[in-house]
């Protein structure tokens, strides 16, 4: 969690490391990890320790 940029959103954070992925695939992966669509635009700083 220390390496995460707390000012980026959840989606931006994953997009950064999954550069070759389509956005729909990233959203699907996050959904399977129990990140609901309304959480994708949430800044990482607002996530709980377990979510990070």
TrEMBL record:
Protein name as catalogued: ABC transporter domain-containing protein
